[in-house]
Every structure is written in structure tokens, then in C-alpha cells.
């Protein structure tokens, strides 16, 4: 697979290393890729400026934060018009229980990844947050029994 012209193997190595550990010090990153700290800093700045690196953050333990109950929810809207899509997207963006939301093609309109404390909290989320959004016609819930692979980053 050809690489985009604006990044090379060293850039890819930087992204792999930072994706695995975003707290990696510039000096250590520079040693691992074989460049000076100044050159490494400039590459990281360029990768960020060009949008290859979109941010840095910590991975948190959902169980310790009372968010261990994970469900996926199919959402079918009553109409597929721009205003209904916009209202739904705006409502979802304001809802902290929704970890991810994807508009999809197929038998329903959106797929949500929702993290809450337990089934009672999920029932409250449905009644207080999801079913109150204008345009929601139907939902289907899939409770996750085991997370086999999660948040592994992108292959670089």
C-alpha cells in the first residue's frame, strides 16, 4: 500500500509510538526513532498541524468510573431528513453516556456505543435521553457480555 506523500516511515513510527504511549517524552521518542529531539519535535508539530495527530489523552478504566455496563444501540428515525439528522446529532453530542455515535447505511440510521453503570442506569438513559429526542422511532439494544478487543488505535 503506497504511503501518503506527506508522511514517511519515520512519521509512521512516531505515530505508532505516540499512539501506544502519548506521554512519551520527546527525548525518548527521539532516541527510539533515531533523530534529534529538535527534529522529532518539528515532525510531531507537523503531523499535528496536518491533522495526522488529532490529540492526546488518557485511557480510563470504565469499571472504576462506574461505567462498566456497555451497550450498542441501533436507532431508527421516523424520517431521514437533514433537520431530523441534525436534531438527533445535536442531542447525542450533549449526552455524556454516549461514547460513540455513527450514522450508518442499512436497516437503521445510527449505531450508538453507550456506557453507563448498570441496567437501571441504561433504562434511565433510554427514557430520559434517547426516547425524548424528536424523530426517534425505534431502538434495538445489544448488551455487551465481554469486551474482546477495544480501543486498540489505528494500524500505522
TrEMBL record:
Highest rank taxon of the organism: Bacteria
Alphabetical list of InterPro entries matching this protein: ArsR-like_HTH, AsnC-type_HTH_dom, Dimeric_a/b-barrel, Tscrpt_reg_AsnC-like, Tscrpt_reg_AsnC/Lrp_C, Tscrpt_reg_HTH_AsnC-type_CS, WH-like_DNA-bd_sf, WH_DNA-bd_sf
SMART domains per UniProt: HTH_ASNC (SM00344)
Keywords linked to the UniProt accession: Activator, DNA-binding, Transcription, Transcription regulation
This protein's record includes keyword 4Fe-4S: no
Gene3D superfamilies attached to this UniProt entry: 3.30.70.920, Winged helix-like DNA-binding domain superfamily/Winged helix DNA-binding domain
Annotated coiled-coil segments of the chain: none
Domain HTH asnC-type residues, every copy: 7-68
Protein name: AsnC family transcriptional regulator
Amino acid at each position: 500500500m503506497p504511503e501518503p506523500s506527506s508522511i514517511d516511515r519515520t512519521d509512521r513510527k512516531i505515530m505508532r509510538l505516540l499512539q501506544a504511549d502519548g506521554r512519551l517524552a520527546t527525548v525518548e521518542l527521539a532516541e527510539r526513532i533515531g533523530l534529534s529531539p529538535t527534529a522529532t519535535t518539528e515532525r510531531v508539530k507537523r503531523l499535528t498541524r496536518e491533522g495526522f495527530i488529532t490529540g492526546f489523552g488518557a485511557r480510563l478504566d470504565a469499571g472504576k468510573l462506574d461505567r462498566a455496563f456497555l451497550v450498542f444501540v441501533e436507532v431508527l428515525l421516523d424520517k431521514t431528513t437533514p433537520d431530523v439528522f441534525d436534531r438527533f446529532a445535536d442531542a447525542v453530542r450533549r449526552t455524556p453516556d454516549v461514547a460513540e455515535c455513527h450514522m450508518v447505511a442499512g436497516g437503521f440510521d445510527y449505531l450508538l456505543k453507550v456506557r453507563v453503570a448498570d441496567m437501571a442506569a441504561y433504562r434511565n438513559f433510554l427514557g430520559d435521553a434517547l426516547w425524548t429526542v424528536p424523530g426517534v422511532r425505534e431502538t434495538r439494544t445489544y448488551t455487551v457480555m465481554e469486551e474482546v478487543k477495544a480501543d486498540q488505535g489505528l494500524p500505522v
